[in-house]
Amino acid sequence: MIAPLIRMAGVSVAYGNAAPVLSRIDFVLNVGEIVTIVGPNGSGKSTFLKAALGMTKPLVGTVERENRLRIGYVPQRLHLDPSLPLTVARFVKLGQFLDRNSIDSLLSRVGVPGVADRDLATLSGGQFQRVLLARALAGKPQLLALDEPTQGLDQPGIAAFYRLIEDVRRELGCAVLLVSHDLHVVMSASDRVLCLNGHICCQGTPSAVSAAPEYRALFGLGTGGALALYQHNHDHAHDHPDHAAAHEVHVHDP
Question: Is there a single domain that holds both residue 154 and residue 207?
């Protein structure tokens, strides 16, 4: 049996003396699956991702990650001084051993060929997000973690970005842990959806979660994930024994 990449058990996270942002989180991320974290503003989505990756220490509970897990991370926001003379190639290479051919290949793979010598400040929002993805892929990650990576993109750009993510997952065999507000697209682009609101309200396949009362109480009836822009094939969810549980919705009491 293949060990999971991440296992969280009884995890609660708080900042300072404030009430916990997340409470009693139990979660397993398996090899090769795409799991999307959804929830309203302030529900703890980014905190969940940071706790899973080891960027935030839990108040209680345990987080176990596969030994030497290679993680590629695309943050929600990255503020750079526009006056900083930093080319795309230098940015992608920072802290990593990459030659120019490797950099050019990464940039082409994510759909922005020919930008290596441009200053980061001259890129559009969509180009910059793809450069962030190229940097995250440089280390051939076993886990690609993305925190709302499509902010500022229009609807066609959002759909294209998620198609790219699935292509990358298929080629690298990596798992994807994604935080997103793009409910329509990600509900069709995921193997499993986890709905947060300070705790896990429900989780399961997109179709099961979109029909769950807990999900609809948060998002209404118009976010069932049946967007024609992008339809994900769930066949690979049967490749791992642990995936069987993801084919039914699991509701969690607060």
Answer: yes
Q: Which residue has the tokens 């979109």?
A: 210
Number of H helices, E strands in the chain: 8, 10
Instruction: Give the CA distances from residue 58 to residues 53, 63, 71, 73, 169, in Å, rounded to whole numbers and listed in that order.
Output: 11, 8, 19, 20, 28
What confidence tens digit (pLDDT) does each residue in 4-25 have? 999 999 999 999 989 999 999 9
165 with 48, same domain: the answer is: yes
Residue 159 CA to residue 46 CA, distance in Å, equals 21
Which residues lie across from 6 on neighbouring strands? 29, 65
CATH number of the domain to which 223 belongs: 3.40.50.300
